[in-house]
User: What shape does this take?
Amino acid sequence: MNRRHLLQNFAALAGASALPVFADNSRIVLGQSAPFSGPARELGEQFKEGAMLVFDQINQRGGVNGRRIELKSLDDGYEPERCALNTRRFIEDGVNALFGYVGTPTTLAALPLLTAAKIPLVAPFTGAESLRTPFNKYLFHIRASYNDEAAEMVKQVLAVGIKRVAVFYQNDAYGQSGLAAVTAALKAHNLAPVSQGTVERNSVDVDGALKSVMAGQPECIVQVAAYKSCAAFIRAVRKTGFLGNFYNFSFVGAQALASELGKDARGVVVSQVVPFPFSGLTPVAGEYLQRTKAAKADVSYTGMEGFIAAKVMVEGLRRAGNNPTPENIVSGLEAQSQLDLGGFFIGFSSQRHTGSRYVDMTILTEDGKVRR
Assistant: This one.
């Protein structure tokens, strides 16, 4: 099917006053567009793997209100245009809801499509303010915002007397969101970034960014990019003799970054928006560890976020009742005003779709581990 045909079909779909979702009463279909190829693929793979730990168990127990959950995942390679095409396909197919999109630029590309079709997207893997303001009835966030993460980073940096902060960021909506968040957090303390440098999405060409960032003589560098770009930049900066710290937003994927860096990961800081997944410090982490062990799956922060996202999705579907239309799913999600998932709390309402502001800080070690 060519793009013109897709656009024509979508226009007809969005203009219809009432459209049925899947007429199959035996299943609930969720659509996920995420990177399963390219430099960001580990994020999509880990998020989906964590989510399937929940969905598989629910299906083994008979599903939700007698319906099995089917997660249809399409690869977008972390490219906005591909994500938009995937979203149009999901809408044409009549999915009940969208779930677990990965990335700011990709989710922004899908936003006007899902809004016009009135289909909810649950747990996009992004903390961008542009996806939270203005309020959108069809977006449900389970993670803290990049503003929340940046505020915690700056608080920690200032606590050790550092004031010269540079920013290395991806040249797209994600990078710009992170840059804006760091700039706002510094401004609250009458500071500003001393220098900036950019990298293109899905690229490891960091030479230009290296020169721009180091020109400001920073004491620490905040990174807002995918893990391969961040790893390439860290290695390049270390070769200059820089001994300061690197701070990363949760989107980087702590385990993916640690694996990419190897021994060069030592001392790299990553903010997190879900509880520590490598020990049972919270009931939800203990449950996640138990499920990963049974499934012989890898443990990661991104997998933990997918796990939590799926639990929120399941609870929303339960509360949607026996007719899981997109509108009923929205109502079911909004009914989760005080949801305790086992030490991680979610709160939605008809006017609030940001479920959590939880932020924690972790550090990577040279043996590829993530420590609190």
Remarks:
- The mean pLDDT is 93.
- Residues 59 and 213 are 50 Å apart (CA to CA).
- The two ends are 49 Å apart (CA to CA).
- Residues 146-272 form a domain with the Rossmann fold fold (CATH 3.40.50.2300).
